[in-house]
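Fold this sequence, please.
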Amino acid sequence: MARVSGQQDTDGQLKRLGEAVRTARKARGLSQEALADASGIDRSHMGKIERGERNVTLLNVLRIAAALNGSAADLLREAGL
């Protein structure tokens, strides 16, 4: 389970966000590596984001959303956050 500021992500919010990123990426026909490159995030870090293993910064959410031609609000809505 991912840690959030010293606490466990017991609500699964990071996992849900990661799933929303993965779903949006696949819907656009992008590989994980292509999305990572387009958003300026290391591919291994992107994998951890998609698996809900990393607490994603707001700036990275914005970068990922832009690379997906969407908005951070769209990703958060899809994640139920």
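The radius of gyration is 12 Å. The longest strand covers residues 3-4.
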